[in-house]
Design a protein that fits this description.
heterodimer; A: 345 residues; alpha+beta; Alpha-Beta Plaits; two-stranded antiparallel ribbon; 10 strands; B: Formate dehydrogenase/DMSO reductase fold; NrfD-like (chain B); transmembrane (chain B); Polysulfide reductase (chain B)
């Protein structure tokens, strides 16, 4: 069942407060039965019929299903980690544009990555995988001693002594588990084929948080609603590219139509393979992950698990049928046993 | 006086030594690890797990936001569903002696159901927007279906309890009460039972429809929760019936049902652990972030295996007693009181076990979400 598109507008950018009006302001005036409630009621009753009808219409407004906006070209990100220099400009640009608050910095103690995760207020996250000297302790890939000996003469790019960097972001999955789980219809697919959380609808049930196989979407104590990358929906509406892609100095983050980006990713992969970088691979650029691929995909220089990316996550909504089957079977057995228990003397 | 103090301190010392010894036996987690390996079929290999790549062991998933509210909702929702189910069984298939079961079941169902919506609303990040849940009817989202089920089940549970109250003449003798008492309670029970079974089981399906390895790897959680709903409810109804000295025949039926529900819960739980394999470590292991001690003591053994064995013994002695009752009635009095105490203990064990089943599964789900290596293994290994 597709999600209904009820109110697609410019996302509110003024964070902590954000997320729509308080309940009292959202209700039509008839419901404002405050200290002078009686007076208001009297005024409403004195109005002519069309006024009452208008009142009824505003009352039923939340139930009205809007026509979805005409679809545009599907857009997304291609994040090429071979070009990332770990400057974190994308993180900052995202925070600035989306007016996300900053937390007191806490040193991770493991690497230069002190952001550590994508969450309700970090919609871009630069990973720093510092592989200095790891081969000496015995690398899991089993890169031998010969390689280490040859290393100093090689270019840093091909050297096992290297840093891997990746700017992580919401993957805007073609079959987004968060969208499929959302019971309020707050999470929608926009006309740009991106996944967007309507902050004025979300009630913070937290089901999307556990549905997301990438650990992206999060509920924050500040707003109480689920938040994640919007792919700068407001900028897209005005024909601008998202802030992170705009600011990326090495074009590691490329924004564009998904089809075009996929071709570009294939071409880049072929180029890297040709130059001998055999471990380069694409993640989410085809239709395999979550049975439809990702609209924000990556070129990786190692296996996905190194970047904390699940290799082949299962689509949670696919679990409904088998889980229901076992539950129904058990219910049937218990029902029959119950009848037996009560019938037999 | 001095002698007394001396004997008291010796007694205390003996007691302490005994407690220490018991602690040593139970804190030696060897038996727990053996049970964990046996039930999940996974033998942990820390060295190999350490070789698996992750990103500084930072969690690859977000931690669930669900806490004690959801634990209590799962427990009370299960009780509401199970009590309705059992009361309806008694109404549809029972005899005159099952009237107490039916009455207790319908009242308890409504009582257990009342806090549920409040707990769910409190759990929301924006509680004032709880009505937004009713904007959608999404078949693929167990939470959406669950909300609709809860709303419609409330109607049936409330109405059935009202009819019962009217029939018990708790509502007085005015025309409304007489009209309520004439409503067909047994007809309501049919759709109500279906909804009750849905309510008791969907919570497990909801947890299975996530990306948390512990909850979603095996698809058996719904089966575990529905059987636990029936077993805890029959324990609760039996507890109330025992305290109110209900006819033994009605109790006997409940005990039989509980015996079957406990057995099916044990089997479903074993299937769940076996199907989860390594993902179930967060639940059954005895490591620092694992919930094995509580799970094995309070749920698997204390809340399932022990009550099931007790119940088996109780049913067997009942049968033997029933045969002996015709022979002589002299020993009957002492026999009954002993059986009664065992029954109360059994009901309490099952209820505590049912609560901790939900609690350990939710808490172990939190641990499971933080375990990046298992998460990545779960997404890599064939399912």
């Amino acid at each position: 069942m597709p999600a209904s598109v009820t109110s697609v507008g410019r996302p509110t950018a003024n964070f902590p407060k954000a997320s729509g009006l308080p309940l009292r302001q959202m209700l039509p005036p008839l419901w404002h039965v405050g200290n002078k409630g009686e007076k208001i009621m009297a005024v409403e009753a004195a109005r002519p019929l069309p006024g009452v009808l208008k009142q009824l219409r505003t009352l039923l407004e939340p139930l009205r299903k809007e026509e979805p906006l005409p679809p545009q070209t599907a857009v997304g990100f291609f994040t090429d980690t071979s070009l990332c220099i770990g400057c974190k400009a994308c993180e900052i640009a995202c925070k600035q544009w989306n007016q996300l608050p900053a937390r007191e910095p806490v040193w991770a103690g493991t690497s230069y990555d002190n952001t550590r995760e994508l969450n309700a207020i970090n919609w871009r996250h630069v990973l720093f995988i510092e592989r200095i000297g790891r081969h000496e302790e015995g690398d899991h890939d089993g890169r031998g001693a010969e390689e280490t000996a040859a290393a100093p003469t090689e270019l840093p790019f091909f050297n096992p002594d290297r840093w891997l960097m990746l700017s992580d972001v919401c993957k805007h999955c073609a079959n987004a588990p968060c969208l499929e789980a959302c019971p309020t219809g707050a999470i929608i697919r926009t006309e740009f084929d991106t996944v967007y959380v309507q902050q004025d609808v979300c009630n913070g049930c937290g089901y999307c948080v556990v549905a997301c196989p990438f650990g992206v979407i999060a509920r924050d104590a500040l707003g109480g609603t689920a938040r994640k990358c919007t792919l700068c929906y407001d900028r897209l509406k005005d024909g601008l590219e998202p802030a992170c892609a705009k600011v990326c100095p090495t074009d590691s983050i490329v924004f564009g139509p998904v089809d075009q980006l996929r071709q570009q990713a294939q071409a880049r992969l072929a180029q890297l393979h040709e130059r001998g970088l055999r471990e380069a691979r694409l993640y989410g650029a085809d239709d395999t992950i979550l049975e439809g691929g990702l609209h924000a995909f990556f070129l990786l220089l190692d296996e996905p698990a190194v970047y904390n990316l699940p290799e082949d996550p299962s689509r949670p909504s696919k679990h409904v049928l088998p889980a229901s089957f076992w539950t129904a079977l058990m219910a049937l057995v218990l029902g029959l046993f119950g009848i037996f228990s009560f019938r037999r003397r | 006086m001095r002698l007394e103090r001396h004997s008291f301190s010796t007694w205390l010392a003996t007691g302490q030594a005994l407690a220490q010894r018991l602690g040593q036996i139970s804190s030696g987690n060897g038996w727990m690890e053996r049970l964990a390996a046996l039930s999940t079929g996974y033998h942990p290999d820390p060295e190999r797990e350490q070789q698996e790549p992750t990103y500084y062991d930072y969690p690859a998933l977000k931690e669930p936001v669900w806490r004690w509210e959801i634990v209590w909702y799962f427990f009370l929702g299960g009780l509401a569903a199970g009590c309705y189910f059992i009361a309806s069984l008694a109404a549809l298939f029972g005899n005159a002696e099952d009237r107490a079961t039916r009455r207790t079941g319908y009242y308890l169902s409504l009582l257990a159901l009342l806090p549920c919506p409040l707990l769910l609303i409190k759990d929301l990040g924006r509680p004032e927007r709880f009505l937004n849940m009713l904007r959608m009817f999404k078949v693929r989202s167990p939470m959406s279906m669950g909300v609709w089920c809860l709303v419609s089940f409330s109607f049936f549970s409330g109405l059935s309890a009202l009819i019962q109250a009217a029939r018990d003449q708790w509502l007085g003798r005015w025309w409304g009460a007489r009209w309520l008492a004439r409503l067909p309670q047994r007809l309501l029970a049919l759709p109500g039972m279906v909804l009750a079974l849905f309510l008791g089981g969907y919570t497990g399906v909801l947890l299975a429809t996530t990306s948390i390895p512990l909850w979603s790897r095996s698809k058996m959680l719904g089966a575990v929760f529905i059987s636990s709903a029936i077993s805890t409810s029959s324990a609760l109804i039996a507890l109330v019936l025992r305290l109110s000295a209900a006819p033994a025949a009605a109790l006997h039926k409940l005990e039989r049902l509980e015996w079957g529900a406990l057995l099916s819960e044990l089997l479903a739980l074993l299937a769940f652990l076996r199907g989860s394999g390594r993902a179930a470590r967060a639940l059954v292991g005895s490591g620092p972030a694992e919930h094995g001690p509580r799970f094995w003591r309070l749920v698997a053994i204390g809340g399932l295996l022990l009550p099931w064995l007790l119940q088996t013994r109780l049913l067997l002695t009942r049968r033997a007693h029933g045969e002996a009752a015709t022979a002589g009635a002299a020993t009957q009095q002492s026999e009954r009181s002993r059986v009664r105490f065992g029954g109360l203990l059994l009901s309490l064990l099952v209820l505590i076990g049912g609560y901790f089943l939900r609690r350990t599964i939710i808490e172990a789900g939190h641990s499971s979400s933080r375990d990046a290596r298992t998460t990545l293994w779960h997404a890599r290994a064939a399912r």
